[in-house]
């Protein structure tokens, strides 16, 4: 009997003692969590290459160049960043979070002028120059 609790085995990858059911077979050396992680990394690369023509490692290269964050909002995300591309030409533009890719750019219809004008609007709200600093309150009182 080789050490450890009965029915438990040490995974070669994560070095955790895991129950027998986490292994594919009696001889399996890597637990299912580690196998899944390995697969998803590979399948992600495969998808990147099929869909966007990114070579192996290019996604990581882009991510590193962007400092590991979304190219627009620069917020670190737990979810993997999406490969943003121009829907008309297919040009790969960079890596974006779901909010920026799915909401921000979609709302602005990928129009740089709209986004520039949105930035101007926020920095210099037109109402302030017309009616002064008026504040909205829920109950209508000033
Ligand atoms: Zn493991
Ligand atoms: Zn973002």
Automatic annotation (TrEMBL):
Organism: Actinomadura rubrisoli
Coiled-coil blocks: none
Protein name per Swiss-Prot or TrEMBL: Recombination endonuclease VII
Family matches, as InterPro entries: Endonuclease_7, Endonuclease_7_sf, His-Me_finger_sf
Residues in the signal sequence: none
One Pfam family from the record: Endonuclease_7
């Amino acid at each position: 009997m080789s050490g450890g609790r009965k029915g438990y085995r040490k995974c070669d990858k994560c070095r955790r003692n895991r129950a027998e059911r986490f292994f594919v077979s009696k001889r399996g050396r890597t637990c299912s969590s580690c196998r899944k992680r390995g697969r998803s990394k590979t399948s992600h690369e495969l998808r990147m290459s099929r869909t966007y023509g990114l070579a192996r490692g290019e996604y990581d290269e882009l991510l590193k160049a962007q400092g590991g964050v979304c190219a627009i909002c620069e917020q670190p995300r737990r979810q993997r960043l999406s490969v943003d591309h121009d829907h008309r030409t297919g040009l790969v533009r960079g890596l974006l979070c779901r909010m920026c890719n799915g909401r921000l750019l979609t709302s602005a219809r990928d129009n740089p002028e709209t986004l520039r004008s949105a930035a101007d609007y926020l920095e210099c709200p037109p109402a302030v120059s017309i009616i002064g600093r008026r504040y909205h309150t829920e109950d209508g009182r000033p």
